[in-house]
Specification:
about 150 residues, alpha+beta, Aminopeptidase, seven-stranded mixed sheet, 4 helices, globular, binds coenzyme A
Amino acid sequence: MFLADIRFCTEENLSQVLELDQFSPHPWPERVIAGDLRGGRVSYLGAFAAEGQLLGYAALGEERGGALLMNLLVSPDRRRLGLGLQLVVAAAEFAADMGFSLLSLRVRSSNTAALALYKTLGFRVRATQQHFYSNGDPARYMLARLPLSLRALQ
Ligand SMILES: CC(C)(COP(=O)(O)OP(=O)(O)OC[C@H]1O[C@@H](n2cnc3c(N)ncnc32)[C@H](O)[C@@H]1OP(=O)(O)O)[C@@H](O)C(=O)NCCC(=O)NCCS
């Protein structure tokens, strides 16, 4: 496992987030990310290398009064090093600190890597939302109770 420096991204990290987002299967518009980093309703937790390189991020927002993990991305050359796991754990910690007792997310049924990661952390599929994504793909709606139980990782 590579232990990253996990901290909140700010406006100063915009170019790094955009650069990394090129590797996202579904990149977000620059104006959306810029607005969030300027102090919008979505918080970006970044996983940084010692030299300051952004290796991954998790975007945390709210939906209907609950905490929602809106995005998760790790640089392709740094995958399977535990960074995704560290980012979701950090996002869950932050959500719990804010008083949320549940963390939800949506993931494409075809995204086996993300599904495996979320299941490892105790997320469970609560519903399938047909035609959720713009291309008609269904979403798995997953939920975990906070604080996360990390027993599965031991
Ligand atoms: C999904 C993603 C964030 C995982 O990040 P990562 O840093 O590689 O994940 P981790 O190294 O923390 O993996 C933790 C565990 O998740 C599971 N996992 C992660 N990637 C996996 C894969 N490709 N296949 C199977 N299991 C996988 C494994 O159980 C893994 O533990 P192990 O490596 O000890 O076997 C990364 O693949 C990614 O950025 N994908 C593209 C964006 C995306 O799909 N985001 C999710 C949107 S909902």
